[in-house]
Design brief:
6 helices; alpha+beta; two-stranded antiparallel sheet; five-stranded mixed β-barrel
Length: 191
């Protein structure tokens, strides 16, 4: 008799948990480290770049709606698909100043931010992983790679079509010896 009550109680508890999950619209799964709902990835969010940390990291303020768990006034963004030379206060990797300056052209401008469902939502440092688009539709992430300010960064998988495009952009920058790829002649380039 005890086992019948136990099973009935477990079923009631499971039904309750399922109902809460459905009513929360999946927010509980997201809070537990799962990805947000698909609709979050289908939107473009209007932002203003308020600080450039280095070539592949910026702080933005959201000008309207924000993705889940984002601070409207300031959110640190790690650009997907590109790795620029590190910009430390005391020691900088070769071409770090140039990469930061290129990204710095976006400072104070309004851009569109888009997430990528095929990669993590945030990185281990809590930075939102995203693409940034200028008013003319150009993607900052891609332009950094194509112009030699950074490398194609495939450590974290992202949209396959974009991955292929970024890989080709790096090949182009290498062939044309653009940006950091031109440093190889002097022996001061990164390996």
């Amino acid at each position: 008799m005890g086992s019948v009550k136990s099973r009935s109680g477990k079923r009631t508890f499971l039904f309750f948990c399922l109902a809460v999950l459905v009513l929360s619209g999946g927010a509980l799964l997201f809070a537990a480290g799962k990805k947000p709902p698909r609709a979050v990835y289908e939107k473009q969010y209007e932002v203003q770049v308020i600080k450039v940390v280095d070539g592949d990291t910026v702080d933005v303020a959201f000008l309207g709606e924000t993705p889940p768990e984002c601070d409207k006034s300031c959110q640190r963004i790690r650009l997907i698909g590109v790795d620029t030379p590190e910009y430390y206060k005391k020691v900088r990797q070769p071409y770090a100043d140039e990469a930061k300056a290129y990204t710095g052209r976006c400072l104070g401008t309004n851009m569109l931010l888009q997430l990528d469902r095929d990669t993590s939502y945030k990185d281990r440092y809590g930075r939102l992983l995203a693409y940034l688009f200028a008013e003319d539709g150009s993607m900052l992430n891609y332009e950094l790679v194509r112009n030699g300010f950074g490398r194609y960064y495939s450590k974290f998988k992202f949209n396959k079509q974009n991955m292929d495009s970024f890989s080709q952009a790096e090949d182009y920058a290498r062939e044309c010896r653009l940006g950091l790829w031109g440093l190889e002649d002097t022996g001061s380039g990164q390996e």
